[in-house]
Amino acid sequence: MPLKKRSNKTSKHKNLEEKSRLDNDELIEISEDSESTPATNSKNGGSKITSSTSAKPAKKAVKESRRFVFLLGALVGVLIAVYFGAVQHGATDFEKLVNFESLQDYLDDWKDVIPNGVQNALNDFKQSSPGDGKDFSEDFSVGKAMKAENNLTDKYPVIMVPGVISTGIESWSLEGTKDCPSQPHYRKRLWGSMYMLRTMFLDKTCWLKHIMLDEETGLDPPGIKLRAAQGFEAVDFFMAGYWIWNKILQNLSVIGYEPNKMVTAAYDWRLSYLDLEKRDQYFSRMKQQIELRFKISGEKSILIGHSMGSQIVFYFMKWVEAEGEHFGNGGKDWVNKYIAAFIDISGSVLGAPKAVPALISGEMKDTVQLNALAVYGLEKFFSRRERLDMMRTFGGLASMFPKGGDLIWGNLNGALEDVLHNNTDTFGNFIRFEKPIGKFSAKNLTMSDSIDFLLDNSPEWFNRRTKEHYSYGVAKSPKELKENEKFFNKWSNPLEVPLPNAPELKIFCFYGVGNPTERSYIYQEEEDKEISKLNVSILSKSDKQSVFFTDGDGTIPIMTHAMCHKWKTSPNYNPGGSQIKIVEMKHAPDRFDIRGGAKTAEHVDILGSAELNELVLKVASGRDDLIQERVVTNMTEWVASMDFGFE
């Protein structure tokens, strides 16, 4: 119905509000406050609905008026939020009234006046409704279902090892520096909290002085002492509202686990692996925890590693049986005696390609794909140079460099993953330059070339410490595999040292696929290096793709998991014949759940996946016989085709 002009402004607003009600006062109520607001705006000339009396009024249908659409949208939003966001504790009278079916009845009555865009959105919500099915994204739901269906109970002690950056880091010093005292930060999290964000924004210089490690020692700078937070609180949430291990902790608790049967082995992920032992006795503490639980319960332990945590677990299994100062001295049968299983969740045992550009130019896909204004703001607040300088002091990050060179990642002529994509170039061409303008862009780079390029163009202390702690090659013979066990810098690379000789050990590789994951890059040499303070950076042209993607979980490409497939078939890499089971999980996120819902396989969100939680509970309860292997990619064939030289 068209709006009628009235000379009196107050009357005019009342008339508009009456029309907005659509004769349905029970569903939409307009408060007296909302009546007075437009009149006030009209006096200031700010109301577009209420023009001055001298202007010709615009005629609008009620369904097209802004107020109607706003109020309708608000109502629908509230009802949908109630339906999808409320925790279901039985059907209260209100829940019986406000559900999608009753909401749909109203919408059917209003379909002639509801805009098409709103109707389409509501149809999408309806299609995603769980209906009468079980919602496994709810707290404790997986554990309750598994307990009811399979009568699962706690069996093995569980030790959870988190991934890179996911453990909170606390300040324990009272000194600090002259310009940046530490006492105000005492026992506060400078990483993994809202306090971190506040400190970073308000005092970035002092935050960086505290979070960065000493360049020469790789440990705490003088006067500053940061340590990994401990306990379940260290890893269940990164910050308020963003869970990490919380879902797994909940579901383990359902089948009987409590602090005496499960622990988290949080660590300072900034440190190189051996420095974790030298400064914090991290691996010694883990060894003691496992031995104590065996003494108390008579059961072996299960080690669960996520992301870089899987690398930590593999390193630990080599460290604990090695002899010497700072090593475990546990003997050659320690793993077989004390470890029942190793669960590798989205593990990065062969590295992550995105770690290389992060330490070449302080960039990755997440920063490159920002719009120009966001890039400018980020650069002004926390520049690429500052990010690069900070990350290079973190000795732990260099453990994430991809391992295996051309064998795993391909060369300038091709890579195994190329068959999945229609690229004009190969993924083996890991860093390619659009045009050479100097010595830094003289040639394109394979994965091995890129790591050499990174080290050659880094400070001497970074180059030295990286080579001291890590290695990224491939053993060329069974003899070399055995010899490498003497060198701790080889223990983070399963292509250079074998698994422990542990016939009773079981290894489970659970990882996501089907989520585009960054794999190679187009770089450019900086023309004005004084301004950018960088030699090279990822190409920033908006009209040209500069980051190329392959299959993976959004962070780790599938080639990183080649080692799990190799362990299944190789007596040289798996001398004890440990049982290996692989389950690839297809990424199928719920588009209305910001964390992906029960079927996500994203790198971090997979920890809340219903299937992943089911698998963990089956292993922990000793019912891994219920686990069926599943490989949906070409990984088995690809690994079988690799020429290891002695297999």
Notes on the protein architecture:
The protein has 647 residues and is α/β, with parallel strands linked by helices. The protein has three domains: 120 residues, no CATH class; 266 residues, 3-Layer(aba) Sandwich (Rossmann fold); 151 residues, no CATH class. The protein contains 26 helices and 15 strands. The strands form four sheets. A six-stranded parallel sheet has the order 7-1-8-9-11-15, with helices on both faces. Helix 8 crosses helix 9 and helix 15 crosses helix 18. The N terminus is likely disordered.
Write the layout of secondary structure elements.
Elements: H1 9-21, H2 32-43, H3 66-85, H4 93-97, H5 100-110, H6 116-128, H7 141-150, E1 158-161, E2 169-171, E3 189-191, H8 194-202, H9 204-211, E4 226-228, E5 237-239, E6 242-243, H10 246-254, E7 262-264, H11 273-280, H12 282-297, E8 301-306, H13 308-319, H14 334-338, E9 339-345, H15 355-361, H16 365-368, H17 372-381, H18 384-392, H19 405-409, E10 431-433, H20 447-456, H21 460-469, H22 478-483, E11 506-513, E12 517-525, H23 529-532, E13 536-538, E14 547-550, H24 562-569, E15 579-586, H25 610-620, H26 635-641
Parallel strand pairs: 1-7, 1-8, 8-9, 9-11, 10-12, 11-15
Antiparallel strand pairs: 2-3, 2-4, 5-6, 12-13, 12-14
Helix pairs in contact: 1-2, 7-10, 8-9, 10-25, 15-18, 24-26
